[in-house]
């Protein structure tokens, strides 16, 4: 049976997201699905074999296909597919945040040169329509800050640690069993996935093409019950928060850091696998979007929304990009000189005090572990971060109003309660 629109879509990938999109398209038959390109010829599938191809070129060279959805888990192959489609002036939607964030300049240029379209709402916060909101609604209004919880796996783990007092490894195992975390969870818990997403947000919200090394990034993999209890004793919770903030010097502050949040923050109330994004706009003020950041149908829904928009002729306009007279993209300056207040717990007591702290309070000192609250310049933290991570450190940002004395007092309370 022919679909309503008579248009044909070629799908790459039939995993979590590809199947989600396929389900949505079956229930809403606006499009005909051409073959689906996958990799493994032996895998058992929920559809008969004749629906599949194992050769990407069979789809890419099929002139009867009107648009593509690239939903594979291999970023290198995904880039080749997207490049080829854009060079042919085609329309393609993708969910691959790593591939897009690492190649954004090239992918924008290809669209300009060959007239094709690339949309990727599903790559950032699954079902939350954040990119379209930034593009279409806040295209002209200056934004001051976009920050949020952008990774469902990490948030699920942090929620379980907080609510059930279980260990990090137990929480990770639960997240894996429920399909919220990959077998190799490094991209999620190490903050890389969040970094890819905040980079895409920074492009649409601030016109910035961000290099990964410009972003302060730490993950949650070394969090312990001690850190969770300390946050609770302070009346807060730890969440993995990504921030892109234009400060008073018109420079971008960029970070992905475990962060202490309090009940007056919307992010405190984002639980389990949910994502939440808060926006601060110059005239509109504060806005908050919350929803499912991953999963088969929520992400399939976002891909479908892109497919529908693309068929209606929608393209990203990157309204915040600024160009010089030669047409080159003007970089947005990134802040390096501001100070951050951070909490660190590390297993290498001798190393930590050697960093160039502006202020430093050390507590919980033992032979094998040290805790501290310190103020440090962003530039210095960026420089020493990889060495710091090698000390098996858990690092969290503290709001400026939380004093070192409060943290030390809370750590005593947490210790008493644990005893
Ligand atoms: N899962 C989510 O909730 C979510 C949310 C937002 C964005 N995303 C993004 O969406 C994309 C897909 O994720 P997923 O969770 O659906 O992955 P997945 O469940 O692991 O499925 C990946 C699919 O890609 C296919 N594939 C991998 N390499 C291929 C290649 N070289 N050529 C052809 N097909 C290939 C696999 O084929 P086989 O079936 O033959 O193995 C499989 O069908 C990723 O970029 C991911 O980051 C995922």
Automatic annotation (TrEMBL):
This protein's UniProt keywords: Amino-acid biosynthesis, Methionine biosynthesis, NADP, Oxidoreductase, Threonine biosynthesis
This protein's pathway: Amino-acid biosynthesis; L-methionine biosynthesis via de novo pathway; L-homoserine from L-aspartate: step 3/3; Amino-acid biosynthesis; L-threonine biosynthesis; L-threonine from L-aspartate: step 3/5
Reaction catalysed by this enzyme: L-homoserine + NADP(+) = L-aspartate 4-semialdehyde + NADPH + H(+)
Enzyme Commission number(s) from the entry: 1.1.1.3
Presence of the UniProt keyword Amino-acid biosynthesis in the record: yes
A GO BP annotation: methionine biosynthetic process
SUPFAM superfamilies, alphabetized: Glyceraldehyde-3-phosphate dehydrogenase-like, C-terminal domain, NAD(P)-binding Rossmann-fold domains
Catalytic class of the enzyme: oxidoreductase
Xref: Pfam families: Homoserine_dh, NAD_binding_3
NADP is among the record's keywords: yes
Domain Aspartate/homoserine dehydrogenase NAD-binding: from-to ranges: 13-121
Any one Gene Ontology molecular-function term assigned to this protein's record: NADP binding
InterPro entries: Asp/hSer_DH_NAD-bd, HDH_cat, HDH_CS, NAD(P)-bd_dom_sf
Annotated Homoserine dehydrogenase catalytic domain residues: 129-307
Similarity annotation: Belongs to the homoserine dehydrogenase family.
Matches recorded under NCBIfam families: PRK06349.1
Descriptive protein name: Homoserine dehydrogenase
UniProt organism field: Pontibacter chinhatensis
Organism phylogeny: Bacteria, Pseudomonadati, Bacteroidota, Cytophagia, Cytophagales
């Amino acid at each position: 049976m022919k679909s309503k629109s008579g248009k044909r879509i070629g799908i790459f990938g039939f995993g979590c997201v590809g199947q989600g999109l396929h389900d949505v398209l079956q229930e809403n038959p606006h499009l005909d699905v051409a073959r689906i390109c996958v990799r493994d010829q032996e895998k058992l599938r929920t559809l008969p074999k004749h629906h599949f191809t194992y050769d990407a070129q069979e789809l890419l060279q099929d002139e009867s296909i009107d648009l593509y959805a690239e939903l594979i888990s291999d970023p290198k192959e995904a880039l080749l597919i997207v490049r080829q489609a854009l060079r042919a002036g085609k329309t393609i939607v993708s969910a691959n945040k790593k591939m897009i964030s690492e190649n954004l300049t090239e992918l924008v240029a290809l669209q300009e040169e060959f007239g094709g379209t690339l949309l990727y709402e599903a790559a950032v916060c699954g079902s939350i329509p954040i990119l379209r909101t930034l593009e279409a609604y806040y295209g002209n209004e200056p934004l001051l800050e976009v920050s949020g919880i952008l990774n469902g796996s990490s948030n699920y783990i942090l929620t379980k640690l907080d609510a059930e007092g279980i260990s990090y490894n137990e929480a990770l195992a639960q997240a894996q069993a429920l399909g919220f975390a990959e077998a190799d969870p490094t991209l999620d818990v190490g903050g890389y996935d969040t970094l890819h997403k905040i980079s895409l947000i920074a492009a649409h919200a601030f016109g910035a093409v961000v290099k990964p090394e410009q972003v302060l990034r730490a993950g949650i993999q070394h969090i312990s019950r001690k850190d969770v209890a300390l946050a609770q004793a302070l009346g807060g919770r730890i969440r993995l928060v990504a921030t892109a903030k234009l400060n008073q010097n018109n420079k971008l502050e960029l970070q992905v850091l475990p962060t202490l949040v309090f009940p007056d923050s919307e992010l405190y109330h984002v639980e389990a696998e949910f994502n939440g994004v808060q926006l601060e706009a110059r005239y509109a003020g504060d806005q908050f979007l919350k929803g499912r950041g991953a999963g088969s149908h929520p992400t399939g829904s976002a891909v479908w929304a892109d497919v529908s928009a693309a068929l209606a002729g929608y393209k990203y306009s990157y309204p915040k990009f600024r160009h010089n007279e030669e047409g080159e993209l003007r970089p947005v300056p990134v802040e390096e000189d501001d100070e951050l207040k951070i909490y660190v717990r590390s297993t290498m007591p001798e190393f930590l005090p050697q960093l160039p702290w502006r202020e430093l309070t050390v507590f919980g000192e033992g032979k094998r572990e040290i805790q501290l609250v310190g103020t440090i310049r962003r530039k210095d933290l960026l420089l020493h971060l990889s060495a710091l991570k090698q000390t098996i450190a858990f690092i969290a940002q503290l709001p400026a109003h939380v004093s070192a004395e409060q943290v030390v007092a809370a750590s005593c309370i947490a210790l008493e309660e644990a005893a």
